[in-house]
Structure formats: structure tokens, C-alpha cells
Amino acid sequence: MRQMTGGSSGAGILGGLLLTAFLAACGAGAPKEAPLDTLSAEQIYKRGEFLLEQDNDPTEAVRYFTEVERLYPYSDWARRALIMQAFTYHKSKEYEDARQAAQRFLDYYPGDEDAAYAKYLMALSYYDQIDEVGRDQGLTFQALQALREVIEEYPDSEYARSAILKFDLAFDHLAGKEMEIGRFYLKRGHYTAAINRFRVVVQDFQTTTHTAEALHRLVECYLALGLTDEAQTAAAILGHNYQSSPFYQDSYKLLTSRGLEPKAKGDSWLASVYRQVIRGEWL
């Protein structure tokens, strides 16, 4: 029994010593990263690229890209690192930092082949922050402005088509905001306030998906106020452009139930819109 106990104890002590030695060796032998200022611009850049692509570590990756710019400010790698900073910040949803990096790139390299991409990243940093319709739309206006700049300044770039698509979606988003507020007023019987919102959609956002509903809501509002000429004219415009829309069917039923029909009447702002539609100048 003593031999077994002694052997077991000796084995335990030996195992503990071996483990301690192993851990000490690991700590002593762990390679230390060479100071970045001893590496070339390309080496630092590629470390950042590796961290971004292989390890999916954008925070650490952007540190390397920043160091390239700091240590080798006039090199071609600094130029590449700066656009990668903008890209990496955007990927991390650090939109303000992305815009700042992209703007620096445009300031330093306005004629570079990646300038269009830098401008596009700035636009995306606004566009990707657009929240649901109910939120403040300040970022939507900024996204529209930035997207317009991409379209106008780089019309032949590969980013222009995407910018056009996103511009249309952001534009539609703004119209949706007006519609939401208009419906809010309409539901509470504040017809004049509702009309003002729907009018904005008809006049300023007529190419969006919300125009048909805006015209129908105008029919509802004007009928509620007893302004039948305006209601009939709104329905006439709706029928001329969106006859197959369910909103036109609803407007038509509302009017005919009161002995009225879709027809341009009077000289209101809607009558002016109707005349433009007939001449093909509205849409």
C-alpha cells in the first residue's frame, strides 16, 4: 500500500512539475509582434487586410490601416490604407468615422480612380442609417444629397447605377413620411393639415409609389370638407394615371355614392395639375 501511495504521489509531483515547465516554456516562447515601425508599409497593410478578411476583426484591421497612413503618409500604400479605413469603418457601422475617412481620401486624392468609391461610401454611410418611416428624416435628406453627388460627379462609374437605385428608394422613403403624417391628421379629422401633406406627395414626390394613395386621400379629405370640385379633380387625375389601382376604385365608389364622378372642375391647384397631366408634362 505504501509503495502504491508513494508511487502515486511521486507521479503527481512529477506531473505538476512537467505542467509548470510547459506553461513557463509557452510563456517564454510566445512570439512577440515586431514593432510596426520596423515593418514595411506593405507588410502592415497586408496584416490589416488579413485581419479583415480572414479573422473578421475590423477593429484591429483599421488600426493597421491607420498605422500605414501614419508611418508612410506619402506612399501608395497609405492611399490604399485610407480607402480601406473608410470601408472598414462602414463595415463596422461606425458611419461617422467612415465619412471622415472617405472625405480625407477625397481631399488628398480627388483625381484618384477610387474617388468615386470614396464618394459612394460617404453616401452609403448616410443611406444605411435611414430608419423606419416614423423617425426623423434628416439623414434621408443627407443621403439623397450624397447619392446625387455620386450620380452627377461620377455618372460613368460602376457606382452610379447603384446610387440611382438607392436615390429612388430614399426619395420614396421621404414620400412615405409625408403619407404617414397625412394619414395621422386624416384619421383625427384634421383635414386641412392632412391635405397639406398629401399635396406635397402629389406635387413633389409624384414619381414615387405613394402618389396613387395620396390622390385618393385627397378625395376623402375634400369630400369631408364639402369641396366637391377638388375631390372630383383629384379622382380624375387618379383615374388618368392609375385607373387599375384599388385606390381609384375606392375613390370612384366614394364619388358615385354621392352622385359625383371623376372630372376636372374649378381652378384649384389640382385643376392645374390635371391640365399638366393631360399635356403629358406632369409625369
Automatic annotation (TrEMBL):
List, alphabetically, the PANTHER family matched: OUTER MEMBRANE PROTEIN ASSEMBLY FACTOR BAMD (PTHR37423:SF1), SOLUBLE LYTIC MUREIN TRANSGLYCOSYLASE-RELATED (PTHR37423)
Q: What family does the database annotate?
A: Belongs to the BamD family.
Q: Does the keyword rRNA-binding apply?
A: no
Name of this protein? Outer membrane protein assembly factor BamD
Q: Encoded by which gene?
A: comL
Give the record's keywords alphabetically: Cell outer membrane, Lipoprotein, Membrane, Palmitate, Signal
- Outer membrane lipoprotein BamD-like domain boundaries: 40-235
InterPro entries for this protein = BamD, BamD-like, TPR-like_helical_dom_sf
**What's its job?**
Part of the outer membrane protein assembly complex, which is involved in assembly and insertion of beta-barrel proteins into the outer membrane.
Pfam families per UniProt: YfiO
Q: Which GO terms describe its cellular component?
A: Bam protein complex
Q: Which Gene3D superfamilies match?
A: Tetratricopeptide repeat domain
User: In which broad location class does this protein mainly occur, judging by the first location in its UniProt entry?
Assistant: membrane
Q: Name one GO biological process term.
A: protein insertion into membrane
Q: How does it assemble?
A: Part of the Bam complex.
Q: Tell me where it resides.
A: Cell outer membrane
Q: How does it sit in the membrane?
A: Lipid-anchor
